[in-house]
Amino acid sequence: MMLLKDCLVVIFILTFRNSLLCDAEEIKGENTTVTSSTGNHSKKFLLKMPLKDYRNETENKVKKIKLKDGRSATEHDFGSMDGYLLKMIRISSELPTKKCPVLLVHGMFQSSDRFLNQDKSQSLAYALDSLGYDVWLFNARGNKYCQSHVTYAAHAQKSEFNNYSYEEIGCFDLAVAVDYILTMTTFKKIHYIGHSLGGTFFLVLNSLVTDYNEKFDRAFLMAPLGYHTTFTNTNLQKALDDPTSLHEALIKVDTFEIFPYEAYGPIQDMVPDNCLGGKTWESICNELHIQKIMNIQPNNNTIAETRGGSTKILIHWAQNIKNKKFHRWDYGESKNVEEYDAKDPPEYPLKAITVRTKIIYSPDDDMVKDTDIRALAKLMKNATSRKVKRANFKHDDFIDGEYVMEDVYSGIIKDLEYPKALVSRANETKPTESNPTSASLSDVPWSALLSLVGILLFMFISIISCCCKKKDTNGACTTEAGQQANA
User: Fold this and answer.
1) Residue 100 domain-assigned?
2) How far apart are CA 196 and CA 194, in angstroms?
């Protein structure tokens, strides 16, 4: 009887721990080398794989650096499966910790600098570091840190180098970055925090490569783009209304990236209104707030400091806005049949995402509608949504907001520090198919259910054991000591 009770106690502790804490091992010292990514891009992966896996041909380097505020950090160079040379910044806390690593992911045409340039009092990266988290800052291919490929030259072979959308960034760059972190730290899972398109990378990866759902403990997506049944910025929607023609026009003038190299030269200052290489598309640059989202300063901005990525990212997003669906790249009917066996591009299978996810939104966001965010959460198995309370909170305020620590980051930190798997705050919602304000049993984590069963069994056996001890020899059950006494 006691052995059974002890087993139940162990089961309860283990399952209850897993429902609240990151499934991780103690962090080890900084490695200087790392083996190739172990990510399993299996047959579930719907994106056509590269003809060659380049990860073994790229050298993984770790270099110590100093950040602008003087603190130490490390730069990590590694390669994607399709040959892009990537870089992450690691801010390793000096505090001893068993906390999961946290990956911060920037938005459209941005870089890790967006987190490092925040005001110290409003900095998410530095706040997490001060709490003992191992903070990693992601960089997507094509930004200022990732301008190299093992085969293509970024400038001489610009059409080949920039032949990617956010799907490749999610399924290749993000996937290998996650595997790199897990290998370097020996943790089994990481936490994920992404803003804007940084949330989109997460949705794409975990819906198409479902194995990666097991590699994230918690995810926090701040106003992710892509799922649009309604688009609030009517001026931008009008400018992007014909994505196919826009893409063809950009190709005709050799514009394959934001701030194309030839348009300005290697040293000349940027003109933010002309981010697509000419006045023709000035309205798009202005409506994107390109100067603000890329943190372009009025003076001394060289190409190396401001380049942001492929124009295919913008076109793919425009396709989603026009079609009011969160779908894969649209090649056109004939090529779609070849690629997808269907005339229309398939929608991302969001129901395949099982990571505990919180999607944070503002009703005043000018890039994504609050109703779309709530609908997005409804399509995911284990997601909640939370509204920012501050009025007139815009899309860029998730990074640049004067009080973003109070409005957004403090809630994320609280959820990381004091996770509550089954309890939501008053301004959080978990929609379901039948009732948008209540959660179904299937939405409850299996580990929490197992914990509950363990508690009930433990209580039941304890009661039975207590009753047995009190009964005499004529009772229905007796203890071993009672049997010996009767003998």
Assistant:
1) yes
2) 7
Q: For 5-14, how does the pLDDT look when each residue is reduced to its tens digit (9 = 90+)? A: 555 544 444 4
Q: What's the pLDDT at 333?
A: 94
Q: Distance between CA 353 and CA 208 in Å, rounded? A: 9
The pLDDT value given to residue 56: 78
Contact 190, 39 (CB under 8 A): no
Q: Nearest CA to 310 among 58, 77, 108, 50? A: 108
- Span 206-221, pLDDT tens digits: 999 999 999 999 999 9
386 - beta bridge partners?
360, 428
Nearest Cα neighbor of 375 from 215, 230, 160, 177 is: 230
Please check whether residue 16 lies inside any domain of the structure: no
pLDDT at 98 over 80: no
Measured distance CA(326)–CA(349) in Å, rounded: 9
Let me know: does 176 contact 50? Beta carbons within 8 Å.
no
Residue 37 confidence (pLDDT): 42
- Reading the block at residue 372, the tokens are 């779309």
- Total domain count for the chain? 1
- Residue 425 belongs to a domain: no
Is the distance from CB of 296 to CB of 306 less than 8 angstroms? Answer: yes
32-39 mean pLDDT: 41
Give the residue numbers spanning the domain of 361.
22-418
pLDDT above 70 for 437: no
153 located within any domain:
yes
The model carries a pTM of 0.80
**Distance between CA atoms of residues 259 and 253, nearest Å:** 13
Residue-averaged pLDDT of the chain? 81
d(CA 417, CA 399): 21
Question: Which CATH number belongs to the domain containing residue 84 in this structure?
Answer: 3.40.50.1820
Phi and psi at 264, nearest 5°, equal -125, -20
